[in-house]
Amino acid sequence: MEKITQEKLQDALQNQDSFLAFYVDVEPVDLALAIENLDDDDIQKICQWLEDEPLSELIEDADDDLRLRLSSFIDDHRLLSVFNFMQKDDIVDIIGDLPTGRKKALINLMRSGDQKIIKELLKYPEESAGGIMTTSYIAIKANWTVAQSLQRIREIADKSEVIETLYVIDDTKRLIGEVDLRNMLGAQKAQRISTIMDDSVISVQPEVDQEQVARLVSRYDLTSIPVVNKRGAILGIITVDDVIDVIVEEYEEDMLQMAGVNREEDLSSTLSESIRMRLPWLMVNLLTAFLASFTVKMFQNTIEQVVALSATMTIVTGMGGNAGTQTMSILVRELAKREISLKENWKALVKELLLSVVDGAATGIVTAIIVYFMYGNFYLALIIFIAMIGNLLVSGLFGFLVPLGLKKLHADPAISSTIFVTTATDVLGFFIFLGLAKLFISHLAGM
Amino acid sequence: MEKITQEKLQDALQNQDSFLAFYVDVEPVDLALAIENLDDDDIQKICQWLEDEPLSELIEDADDDLRLRLSSFIDDHRLLSVFNFMQKDDIVDIIGDLPTGRKKALINLMRSGDQKIIKELLKYPEESAGGIMTTSYIAIKANWTVAQSLQRIREIADKSEVIETLYVIDDTKRLIGEVDLRNMLGAQKAQRISTIMDDSVISVQPEVDQEQVARLVSRYDLTSIPVVNKRGAILGIITVDDVIDVIVEEYEEDMLQMAGVNREEDLSSTLSESIRMRLPWLMVNLLTAFLASFTVKMFQNTIEQVVALSATMTIVTGMGGNAGTQTMSILVRELAKREISLKENWKALVKELLLSVVDGAATGIVTAIIVYFMYGNFYLALIIFIAMIGNLLVSGLFGFLVPLGLKKLHADPAISSTIFVTTATDVLGFFIFLGLAKLFISHLAGM
């Protein structure tokens, strides 16, 4: 396996022969990453130079943007012959992203058998079980012998994505069991499939969200999972490589969304794409910032009397934000794995609040000591100590309850928890600290 | 598949018969999750009631804490017979976590063949390729016929974790190729393996980090990856189910570490565990908070003259923090996928800075208008507009460069980027805004 550098790639692009020689030594997925930044001329050359099969590999391994670019340089008839080397689920992914006109034209050019399957698959949302399933699985019948089944496997193994698990169906295509190829290889030739099949199969319906599918596969260590309709008839299977893609996708989404970034964005996004994807989140946060600002403004008189408050108040809110993010992250992670009800987990909430008191007291005492040495006022030190505990309690409470509440409202806790939690720690943090300062103002004045 | 509720579990725990009847209907992994909070008496009962094989399933699916608890109720001889139903890599995981004394005692009780393998596997760090590999793979020779190989597969398929891929070795156990079972099923019985094998195999050495292994498997859509030593001899294979666990683990780690949380912590952690894991991060952040506080203190005179600054300055730093987190998240994500050099990506940095100007101007103009209506001072509005653009430039610059720099220093960008970026946006944000205010103080005074 050759590592691709931009120099090697440029050398290879000199002419068709050098490129084809280069192609043999690289993995298509590496090439797909390396050509992302080439200009259209080079992309067009690659499409012309490669034969249908290698071109199909390259398209399969390209990301959405590159797929669109590649397919724009391939005419409809060529694209159809490239499709011959692809699994149906990949074809659907590709034409699903094409402009509607071209999508329709391509489907109309297909053989009627293919047309039916593709149309069927296109019905399912891209991120559902139906959207990621493949129709290339091996189905056998319960009354077949092992020998008959092995013969069938030999015939279609080449076109099947999974051969380790065979799906047993009845005459109406209802899924009634599965057989591990291991057991079949070990069994007698004349044995019936019904005697070696496992009839408790974990399956999903096509509407199920891909995240749920990934959770099942990861939890039960499956290598594939069948998709069945309401009647129990098998529609397709989802393979573990697609599940890995889903897991990576969903985690990235969660991680980026917690930071207010869209999953679609990466280093190669254009300026206008980045603006469109990031500015709205900043605008929402501006609202939060003003809420905090209004709170401070309420105490303008107090700050006027003791200007040292302006330099110390941000410590309280900053620490509240950090502690709140910690609590929230733990909750978001647990919610991604399982249902959490407050009723069954009130002890965890109590622990979280105790933790807030301890962490608040620990950071509060350090802060109080430093503040005392900076400003020489015991009351200011005492106030910041109390405010720190108070705001960490706010952070623990909101960090715990906000994700739970969003989940209950069927919102994604990963997306919007941050904003609610930091609004709470900012607004209430300022309020607690400056409110206490106002109460004790006679002890603070003249600092 | 039965859903497990605490009521059903309590019912089942009445006596052995009811528990065994209950066990048949549940998945071991679900049971393992459900019994985490049971007290020791119940855990002990379960260990006594279950036979070796179901007990081995339960232990395999338990998390580290529960494994330790379960094995504390199983004596050495029983544990060894439970191990008979497990893969070697799982046994190693379990005894690796036991107290040293017990670990040694168990190994000494093993048959010498097993002893050797277990000792060998224990040498590798838990999070390396060697630490997650299994020794249950199928090896065949290049000069064997297809018929011979199929016979071999039949014999050992039952004990092998992967049968879809067969590994071809020479007489010194060096890995020289692999065969897809599909091709073997389709080939003639008398054909030699050398004629159908693929001799470009992607493999890893045992010291390689598990994250790197996961990246290879996910990138090249593998279902297993062989582990070879320096000489090229095969030591074991890593299967896709373990890779999924690694991916989930590593992503969770990144996500939690960005928020200053240890991966080990969850809702069931005790108060003292949580304190130990979260307080250090808060203390580090306290340092940051004081840096920002000192910056504000430098401008105490300015704020004394125009107290409105204290309510508006946090808008500038808050927005800088949000924008910086966005940029940083994108970089951390990309760095997890590939190497990024500044030299090849300076255009992306320029775009990021342009984006900062646009986003800064957009949020800045909104802020300026609101501030103008709140305080009626044109210069204050102008200053906050300029400061917003300035601090978003800081956020873009640091959000981009900090993760790159940390990676270059071989530190994990996911862990410590946040603290450096927010320190920059806090300190420089206050500095820019209050510094401008100081310059224009004559236009602001008397607000």
What would the keywords be for this entry?
transmembrane helix (chains A, B), 6% strand, two-stranded antiparallel sheet, magnesium ion transmembrane transporter activity (chains A, B), 447 residues, CBS-domain, mainly alpha, homodimer, MgtE N-terminal fold, SLC41_membr_dom (chains A, B), 5 strands
In brief:
Helix content of chain A is 68%, strand content 6%. By secondary structure, chain A is mainly alpha-helical.
Explain what the structure shows:
- Two copies of one chain form a homodimer.
- With 447 residues, the first copy, chain A, is mainly alpha-helical.
- Chain A folds into three domains: 6-123, MgtE N-terminal fold; 139-258, Roll (CBS-domain); 271-444, SLC41 divalent cation transporters, integral membrane domain (Tetracycline Repressor, domain 2, Orthogonal Bundle).
- Helices cover 68% and strands 6% of the residues of chain A.
- Chain A is built from 23 helices and five strands.
- A three-stranded mixed sheet of chain A has the order 1-2-3. Chain A has a two-stranded antiparallel ribbon with strand order 4-5.
- The longest helix of chain A has 31 residues, at 378-408.
- The first copy, chain A, is elongated and about 95 Å long.
- At the A-B interface, α12, α13, α15, α16 and α17 of A face α12, α13, α15, α16 and α17 of B.
- Chains A, B: It is a multi-pass membrane protein.
